[in-house]
Each structure stands twice: as structure tokens, then as C-alpha cells.
UniProtKB/TrEMBL annotation:
Gene name tied to this protein: LOC106066582
Name by which UniProt lists this protein: Ferric-chelate reductase 1
BP GO terms, sorted: defense response to bacterium; innate immune response
Signal peptide: 1-21
Main location as per UniProt: secreted
Location(s) in or outside the cell: Secreted
Keywords for the protein's UniProt record, in alphabetical order: Antibiotic, Antimicrobial, Immunity, Innate immunity, Secreted, Signal
Length: 205
């Protein structure tokens, strides 16, 4: 293989990695601490148009909690959610179970993120409590409406640690996921961009 061919293949591989992985929640671990997207833009300072709800409003060791993310006035394409300790906000507790449109991120599934740029109005998934009492927690979520429009670390109400507390068992059901068909359009856009730029690169070589 000639050096020119090798450089072309390397360029195409790097291009495909960029256009295919960027909207899929891959390689986001560098944002696990501050939950800030590396988009070269500042996060919004206005009130977040998204809400975070959960059921039940308490947890016990090893129990599960249904968590729902909802867009109140706009849809979101990307997100990252973590459960942070109320006594040490730098500590993530519990794990998330990946479902449709999501993937695990950060160490030991401590976070959940999107797996496509499809527009989402509502997503529901499960948070699994740790096996030991960890105190009250709050869900922190970064919502991404677009590359340059995002809200960092939107916070939920407090999820109570019900260890050694008598609680009323709630009938919690999983809410339906509500998404649009924009993933097809987004995927087509990135594929087209890859083809166009690939053609330019090939013509130069």
C-alpha cells in the first residue's frame, strides 16, 4: 500500500468516526465530572425547559426507581443523567439500565446518555439503587437541544433514602417513550456529508 493510499484511508476513517459517533453519545466520558458537552459553546443560562420526574419518590437498598425525562416546550436530542449524592455532589451513586434510545456511560454505568440524535419528547428508564445506604440523592441531567443549545446539570427534586423508614409502596408504571422520526433525517445528513467530503478527499489524492 502506498503512503498516499494509507493517508487517504486514515483520513476517511477519522472522518467516518466523527460523523457517525458525534450524535450517538459515544466518547462522552470526559464530561462525566462536570456534565458539560464538549461542543465549543456555552450552556444556556435560562431556566431549563425540561423536567425530571421519578417514581417512587424514595428508594431502599437495591431497589429500582423509574425516571422520566420530559420536554415541556421543546424536544431534546441528547442528554446525560447521573444520580448525585446530596452530601457529596461530586459522587455518583447507583447505576442506570439502558433501554431504547439510550446507552450507559462513565464508570460502571454511573450515567446514561442518548444513543442517537433522534428528537425525544419523553424517555423513561430505570435507576438501580446501590446495595448500601447512600443518603438522599438528586438526579442531574444535561439536556442537549442542538449542538450549540444545551442546559447543563438540570436538577430534579430530592429522591429520599428510605433505609429504616416505613414507606407506602407506590404503583409505578413505565411511561411510554415519545420520539420523532428525525433520526432518519439526521442519519441521512451525516451519511451525505461523509460521501461529499470523501469525494473531495479522493479527488485530491
Amino acid at each position: 500500500m502506498s503512503a498516499k493510499t494509507a493517508r487517504l484511508l486514515l483520513s476517511l476513517t477519522a472522518l467516518w468516526t466523527y460523523v457517525s459517533c458525534y450524535p450517538n453519545g459515544i466518547n462522552v466520558d470526559e464530561a462525566c465530572s462536570d456534565m458539560t458537552p464538549r461542543h465549543n459553546h456555552q450552556g444556556q443560562t435560562s431556566a431549563s425547559p425540561f423536567k425530571i420526574t421519578f417514581c417512587p419518590n424514595w428508594y431502599k437498598q437495591g431497589s429500582s426507581v423509574n425516571v422520566t425525562l420530559t420536554g415541556t416546550s421543546m424536544k431534546f436530542k441528547g442528554f446525560m443523567i447521573q444520580a448525585r449524592s446530596n452530601t457529596d455532589s461530586a459522587t455518583s451513586v447507583g447505576t442506570f439500565t439502558a433501554t431504547d434510545y439510550t446507552r450507559n456511560a462513565c464508570t460502571s454505568s454511573k450515567a446514561l446518555v442518548h444513543n442517537s440524535a433522534i428528537e425525544k419528547s419523553q424517555l423513561t428508564f430505570k435507576w438501580m439503587a446501590p446495595s448500601t445506604a447512600s443518603g438522599n440523592v438528586t438526579f442531574w441531567v444535561t439536556f442537549v437541544e442542538d449542538e450549540d443549545v444545551f442546559w447543563v446539570a438540570t436538577k430534579s427534586s430530592v429522591l429520599m433514602d428510605a433505609t429504616n423508614v416505613n414507606v407506602t409502596v407506590e404503583n409505578c408504571t413505565m411511561n411510554s417513550n415519545i420520539v420523532s422520526n428525525s433520526a432518519v433525517r439526521v442519519g441521512s445528513y451525516f451519511t451525505l456529508m461523509f460521501v461529499v467530503v470523501s469525494s473531495i478527499l479522493i479527488s485530491r489524492y
